[in-house]
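Sequence, please.
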């Protein structure tokens, strides 16, 4: 039986092998998305920031995301930008990220992953939407842990959702679960 790693991004197999490195990248990106969900599982802005290398770049690309998010450089700037959208900020009532079409290419000291992201969101202003984005991340390995070095996201598609179909309870609308 494979023992689960102690932290997100830590390889479950030998991190020197491509399979272990792919696993480490997969776990890092999945934990990043999980921490960006609202409500999140054990949310920690410090943990979210730690998923990035110290000199990381977070970049919105394409016409919509370049102007909305721009480019953030370094852990503090990335954490500060993400904090604008996450609790205790009331931006989202509910927000979930679903990753698909994963491709991870591994080299000796780094890896590049690509995904399609489906994001379902209910906003504090009453809107709800389904968004699809292309996500790519260059990662480096730090003592067997994959850290995001360059994260890019580009909106591909968005459509409104019927808020009534989401069935928000009074507790969820107030940000409680």
């Amino acid at each position: 039986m494979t023992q689960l790693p102690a932290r997100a991004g830590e390889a479950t197999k030998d991190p020197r092998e491509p399979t272990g490195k792919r696993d480490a990248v997969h776990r890092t990106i999945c934990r990043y998305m999980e921490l960006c969900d609202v409500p999140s599982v054990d949310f920690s802005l410090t943990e979210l920031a730690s998923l990035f290398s110290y000199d990381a770049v977070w970049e919105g690309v394409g016409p919509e995301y370049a102007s909305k998010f721009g480019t953030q450089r370094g852990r503090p700037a990335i954490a500060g930008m993400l904090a604008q959208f996450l609790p205790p900020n009331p931006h989202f009532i509910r927000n979930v990220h679903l990753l698909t079409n994963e491709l991870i290419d591994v080299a000796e000291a780094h890896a590049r992953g690509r995904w399609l992201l489906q994001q379902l969101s209910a906003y504090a202003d009453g809107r709800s939407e389904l968004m699809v984005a292309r996500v790519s991340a260059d990662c480096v390995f730090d003592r067997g842990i994959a850290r995001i070095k360059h994260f890019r996201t580009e909106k591909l598609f968005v459509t409104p959702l019927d808020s009534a179909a989401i069935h928000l309870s009074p507790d969820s609308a107030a940000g409680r679960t």
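Residues 18-36 form the longest helix (19 residues).
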